[in-house]
Amino acid sequence: MAETDRVPDGASVIMAESRALELLARSLDGNFTRAVELVLATTGRTAVTGMGKSGHVARKTAATLASTGTPAFFIHPSEAGHGDLGMLAPGKDVLVAYSNSGETQELAAILNFCARFRIPVVGVTACPSSMLARHSEVVAALPEVPEACPLGCAPTTSTAMMLAWGDALALALLSARGFTAEDFRQYHPGGKLGTRLMSVSDLMHAGDEMPLASPGDPMSAAVVTMTAKRLGCVGIVEGGRLAGIITDGDLRRHMGPDLLKSPAGEVMTPRPVSFAPETLAAKALAVMEAKGITNAFVVSPEGVPLGVVHIHDCLGAGVA
């Protein structure tokens, strides 16, 4: 059997790509920093292009950029020469172009357009002397490593490196922009990811749903409030701030003939667990489970009660 007829085992392919990624990580230099700065400085959007397998990577990079705070879109190099060049804003946008060889002829039209209309180009290629490199303000040179394909033809290690480079660019920009988990959630409202990034303010019972009482109120009134609101607790508010909480557990601990005549302030648990409104629901769930509690108040920085989050709300929303 000829050498090229052998079927590589899956592990060898993955190891080859892993080694390529290690080389890529060690090869990142000032050009990567300049690429980040170039995208940050643009007043428009980031266009990403590539042909064939590089094009699939470009689509993914554009999607990752867009979802992490960098407005971006994919432009097909062949379609660009048939009207899609109008997607590019002269003097505003920046182009990231993928081509392992750097000689992809379909890129010619878009590169010439960028040169004419002052659209800077970041070229991601393994050939720093190629056509793409010559048309680029910044060249991200990929390490020269063989493809994992036994024929040496199918893009494998090259596209793995391109994909990783695009992820590195997107996350470096995310960090530079101060992009937060809340920002991320706004772009990912659907599916499990959106659920995981819910904050307690999305789930809390607010307004008239909040069970509240004052420290001087008799427990008979506090119990009525707790029963009516059906959240298993009542918040004790003094001076507009949350001073304590009374739960079903507190009722059992203070059970006695004079309980209903006692002031709520004598029965409450002071300084209860509470959450800021931006706290992720997943974090709140973990805290409640660790402390063995089923509900907690959401409060403002000044301690004003804004709502109540119940552990069942978190579980029912699929946060776990």
Task: Please supply descriptive tags for the structure shown above.
single chain, 320 residues, alpha/beta, Rossmann fold, CBS-domain, five-stranded parallel sheet, 15 helices, 13 strands, 43% helix
Order of helices and strands: HHEHEHEHEHEHHHHEEHEEHHEEHEEH
Mean pLDDT: 91
Top-tier CATH class of the largest domain: Alpha Beta
CATH homologous superfamily placement of the largest domain: Glucose-6-phosphate isomerase like protein, domain 1
Number of strands: 13
The dominant shape is elongated
Task: Examine the coordinates and then state which fold CATH places here, giving the name of the CATH topology of the largest domain.
Answer: Rossmann fold
Taken as a percent bin, the fraction of beta residues is: 15-25%
Largest sheet: 5 strands, parallel
- Helix-strand category: alpha/beta
What is the overall number of helices?
15
Radius of gyration: 29 Å
Arrangement of strands in the largest sheet: 2-1-3-4-5
| Tally of structural domains | 2
Helical amount among residues, as a percent range? Answer: 40-55%
Distance N to C terminus: 53 Å
CATH architecture of the largest domain: 3-Layer(aba) Sandwich
Low-pLDDT windows of residues? none
Description:
A hairpin with a 5-residue loop joins strand 12 and strand 13. Helix 1 (10-27) packs across helix 7 (157-177) and helix 2 (30-41) packs across helix 7. 43% of the residues lie in helices and 17% in strands. The longest helix is centred in the middle third of the chain and has 21 residues, at 157-177. The protein has 15 helices and 13 strands. It has two domains: 3-179, Rossmann fold; 200-316, Roll (CBS-domain). The strands form three sheets. Strands 2-1-3-4-5 form a five-stranded parallel β-sheet. A four-stranded mixed β-sheet has the order 6-13-12-11. The protein has a four-stranded mixed β-sheet with strand order 7-8-9-10. By secondary structure, the protein is an alpha/beta fold. The chain is elongated and about 90 Å long.
